[in-house]
Write a structure and sequence with these properties.
There is one protein chain. Helices cover 34% and strands 24% of the residues. It is an alpha+beta fold and 468 residues long. The protein folds into three domains: 2-65, no CATH class; 73-157, Sandwich (Immunoglobulin-like), CATH 2.60.40; 175-467, Phosphatase 2c, domain 1. The strands form four sheets. A six-stranded antiparallel sheet has the order 8-9-18-17-14-15. Helix 5 (232-248) crosses helix 7 (272-303) and helix 6 (250-268) runs antiparallel to helix 7. The radius of gyration is 39 Å and the shape is rod-shaped. The protein starts with a helix and ends with a strand. It holds the Pfam family PP2C_2.
Length: 468
């Protein structure tokens, strides 16, 4: 009764009616009259309903305005993110439906409380949750809550592929992939312009060359022109051609005959002398080749009135020949391009060079640097191995090494090379596979496609040579 008395008192007061003290008994009797009690009951019921309606409307507004943050998605990349009503405190929803996900390539699983799918478009996009809360009648309309989902574009689509200037005097093909017999083996090699160059229409700085030599030797060369050097594309091309031309020279062909005798001596006896003689031969012969390349680059720079630094390029090359006792492999390297040989059953890896990276390597070095030939480490840039057989000889620029091996410490790991072979075989995000079979008619095309693999932050030129 007290509550009813206060309710009517407040109602009268809001309408300008003040009950004086001497009318209070009359007011009490007034409230006890049957017809007024009925009105009072209805008034209380309406008041309760009004408050309930307000709480419902307030709850609806709270849900509509509630900030919901869900992880960003990326076009073309599988997406899975929680979308949990209980986590958002939406336990009082009595009905709902979600609209707009299908157009984004997504769907909602109530069982797993997840948004999943593969987004098909990018942007700051929205989908909507249509809902009813407790307290709403069954026939009440659904209310709409919009949820923002940021879908990033596929980063691959942000890169342009602009043609390089074919009128440039030092222009060369942006992408080259070849498959060729070489000696008693085969060579699969590809060199592709990196996305960072393609997007601005600049040139491929990497290069390669190979040749079967008249004396049974075979040479494979890979060079990586420095991106900061304005004529690096020419420097790498000159370096590769210079190595091949050196070993084609009749004097070099004749001098290599000495190696045949040294190998036979080495195979028939043990001792430090034969090993020393072999090492001396490798040092003298390959050292002359490397130095001649350096001098050719120096002469070209002088003739074109550019600096030698403008032609900066790394350089690696390998010569191999089959003997009765196995394969002889000779190597040279300057820069950050590795050379590796895998044994026949792919259980061991032999590194044929060390690479100029990191604190102890002192950073990348180039064949254009005169100090390379004066440094006390110059003799360690050469390699010689005599092995029974091998499955693969790999040579690559850092455009392959960086994304696939990441750090120098991974190069001696046969597990990483087995992983690399699996990658070539199709175990990669793009499912690009290279069937390393000499009878595969699509071999070059397969490697060319594989070379386009996506690796965030790794958009340099890529060169890979495989002898198998």
């Amino acid at each position: 009764m007290a509550n009813a008395n206060q309710l009517v008192t407040d109602l009268f007061k809001s309408n300008g009616i003040i009950i004086p003290e001497h009318r209070m008994k009359l007011f009490d009797r007034f409230l006890q009259e049957e017809q007024n009690l009925a009105i009072l009951h209805q008034l209380k019921k309406n008041q309760d309903q009004l408050m309930a309606n307000w709480k419902t409307e307030d709850r609806i507004a709270e849900i509509v305005q509630q900030p919901i943050r869900i992880p960003n998605a990326t076009v073309g990349k599988h997406y899975a993110a929680p979308f949990d009503f209980e986590q958002y405190g939406w336990n009082d929803l009595i009905a709902f439906r979600i609209e707009g996900l299908e157009t984004l390539g997504l769907n909602y699983s109530a069982e797993n409380n997840q948004l999943t799918g593969v987004p098909t478009q990018s942007g700051d996009l929205k989908f909507s949750v249509h809902f009813k809360v407790e307290g709403q009648p069954e026939e009440a309309p659904f209310h709409q809550k919009d949820v923002l989902l940021i879908i990033n574009p596929d980063p691959k689509t942000l890169w342009q592929n602009l043609e390089s200037d074919k009128n440039d005097p030092y222009w060369k093909e942006d992408d080259v992939t070849l498959f060729s017999p070489i000696g008693d083996r085969h060579l699969l090699v590809s060199s592709k312009r990196g996305r960072s160059h393609a997007t601005v229409g600049s040139f491929r700085e990497d290069d390669f060359a190979f040749k079967e030599l008249p004396n049974g030797w075979n040479v494979v060369v890979v060079a990586d022109g420095a991106g900061s050097a304005k004529l690096a594309r020419k420097g790498s091309a000159l370096a590769c051609a210079g190595v091949v031309n050196y070993f084609l020279d009749p004097a070099a062909v004749e001098s290599m005959a000495e190696f045949d005798n040294l190998v036979q001596q080495h195979a028939s006896q043990t001792g430090a002398d034969t090993q020393k003689n072999l090492n001396r031969f490798v040092y003298n012969t390959l050292g002359k080749a490397a130095f001649q390349v350096h001098k050719q680059l120096e002469s070209f720079a002088k003739a074109q009135e550019v600096t030698l630094k403008d032609l900066s390029s790394t350089l690696i090359f390998t010569l191999f020949k089959k003997y009765d006792v196995g394969y002889a492999l000779l190597s040279f390297g300057v820069g950050d391009c590795p050379i590796a040989v895998l044994n026949k059953d792919v259980t061991e890896v032999t590194l044929m060079n060390w690479i100029d990276v990191g604190e102890f390597g002192g950073g990348t070095r180039f064949i254009t640097m005169p100090e390379i030939f004066q440094n006390e480490k110059f003799a360690t840039r050469f390699g010689f191995k005599l092995i029974d057989n091998f499955s693969y000889l790999f040579m690559m620029s850092d455009g392959i090494y960086d994304p696939k091996f990441v750090v120098e410490a991974n190069l001696p790991s046969i597990a990483k090379w087995q992983e690399f072979l699996a990658d070539l075989n199709g175990q990669n995000e793009g499912k690009a596979a290279v069937d390393l079979s000499t009878t595969n008619p699509d071999l070059a095309a397969q490697l060319s496609k594989w070379m386009d693999f996506w690796s965030p932050g790794n958009h340099d030129d890529r060169s890979l040579a495989i002898v198998f």
